[in-house]
Amino acid sequence: MKVLVVDDDRVVGISLKTILEAEPDITVPALGQDGTEAVALYREHQPDILLMDIRMEGMNGLDAASAILAEYPAAKILFLTTFSDDEYIVRALRLGAKGYLLKQDFESIVPALHAVFGGQNVFGSEVIKKIPDILSTPKEPDVSELPLNEKEIEIMKLVAEGLNNKEIAQTLFLSEGTVRNYLSSTLEKLEVRDRTQLAIYYYKHVQ
Amino acid sequence: MKVLVVDDDRVVGISLKTILEAEPDITVPALGQDGTEAVALYREHQPDILLMDIRMEGMNGLDAASAILAEYPAAKILFLTTFSDDEYIVRALRLGAKGYLLKQDFESIVPALHAVFGGQNVFGSEVIKKIPDILSTPKEPDVSELPLNEKEIEIMKLVAEGLNNKEIAQTLFLSEGTVRNYLSSTLEKLEVRDRTQLAIYYYKHVQ
DNA sequence: AAAAACCGATGACATTTGTCACTTTCTCTT
DNA sequence: AAGAGAAAGTGACAAATGTCATCGGTTTTT
Asked: Measured between alpha carbons, how far apart are the two ends of chain B, in Å?
């Protein structure tokens, strides 16, 4: 199988090529060093798999993958990167990457390539473990360990829906002043400044 | 490698056993039919991999996996199920399952077992594709489609980070009054009432 | 060059928001 | 029944927010 290797770091690229070509069934037709090259080399060599770094000078790996997939929807792209950054993982998944491995996980690379070639998706353990953290639990917002009482939680949710104090008061059958008081204590406990930051907090940490 | 098979449906279990044992390097020491049996049989046979259904009478696959992993943290568990239900996928990931395949994806099972045995994580394409849907950022990231100009978009983003008008003014090198004016037009264009609703709009529809 | 369009800024204004110190009301406990 | 302690409310206040009309420069259009 043909594996196109693209990595910012020339040393890493050559090492990978050496390791991969030690396998009898793998050839590395070319080495790229950034996203632009990745796209051009992919067109030229039409490899079975593209093994690519994410962080690179110039066009990054994700944008390159996006461009390649637009042109070759069946492209098998396996990201090999140093950091398991949430942002990257999400974007890679969304793009339809076939895999996402950490460079640390060196001995996994060859078997991963075989697995991807066979149609599997391969994500390193660290990546898989991260996914639940990135996931929002849409069913029951994890509100249990927040230091808020029942009323404060209610108010937080309503703020996160965009209601103003008067509307919250009507919804909860409280006076507007009481709502303000509860809101005030909520802000203090969560260490945020105003209702907007509270809504943001809710979307980022709770829901 | 020893593969313990647990499936509600006797027919499926026997079919799997037959298929797997056609492989020279796979043996199936036992067949279980529910979660309780899975735990007992795992203790008894200490298989290399547990291949298990999720929906089963009695104890389900996820709870069984949870119990087994508590006892054997290195257990390699591969779920084989009919439905790619969001709930299940999230829980399986959280537990630390090594894989999650759909039964439809029949010919994937053997290579997947080999991959898992080799230390990989294997998730079917349908599952991987689902993950972004489960992610908290479901909508399209098309800032370009919004009827806002450059400044208004900047301000929207900063509001969505929780900055107040003064801070936005400092960040953008504008006067606070100007920021208010731009904010005002942004609110009108997006048909939201205040900065909190704007932040919510951003998290729901943009980012 | 004149007109139009645009960008940023002001000032005034009504509302909303958040904070604080208290009071009232209700509900338990003893 | 008395009192402690909640839950809820009040009033006052400063600050922040959002709206509006308008003004002074640029740049663009014609």
From this structure: 46
Q: What is the pLDDT of residues B30-51, one digit of tens each?
A: 999 998 899 999 999 999 999 9
Q: Are A121 and B124 within 8 A, CB to CB? A: yes
Which nucleotide does the CA of B196 lie closest to, via C1'? Answer: D17
Tell me if chain A has a CB within 8 Å of the CB of B71: no
Helices within chain A (DSSP H only): 10-21, 35-45, 61-71, 86-95, 109-117, 125-134, 150-159, 165-172, 176-190, 195-201
B188 Cβ contact partners less than 8 Å away, ≥ 6 residues apart = none
- Distance between CA atoms of residues A4 and A64, nearest Å: 13
Is B120's pLDDT higher than 90? no
- Angstrom distance (rounded) from CA B71 to CA B73: 6
Q: Rounded mean pLDDT of A73-99?
A: 79
What is the arithmetic mean of pLDDT over B153-172?
89
A25: which 2 tokens?
């069934």
Q: Which of residues 8-47 of B touch A (CB under 8 A)?
A: none
For all residues of chain B together, what is the average pLDDT? 83
Question: Which H/E stretch holds residue A79?
Answer: strand A77-81
Nearest CA in chain B to A94: B132
Query: Chain A: nearest CA to B172, how far in angstroms?
Result: 19
A188 touches strand C (CB under 7 A): yes
Note whether B196 contacts A195, CB cutoff 8 Å. yes
How close, in Å, is residue A111 to chain B by CA atoms?
7
Q: Is B109 helix (H, G, I), strand (E, B) or coil?
A: helix
pLDDT at A114: 87
Question: What's chain A's average pLDDT?
Answer: 83
Instruction: Return the bridge partners of B122, or none.
Output: A122, B99
Does residue A205 have a pLDDT over 70?
Answer: yes
Q: What is the pLDDT of residue B144?
A: 54
Tell me whether A200 touches chain B (CB under 8 Å): yes
Nearest CA in chain A to B91: A132
Residue A39: which pLDDT band, with cuts at 50, 70 and 90?
very high
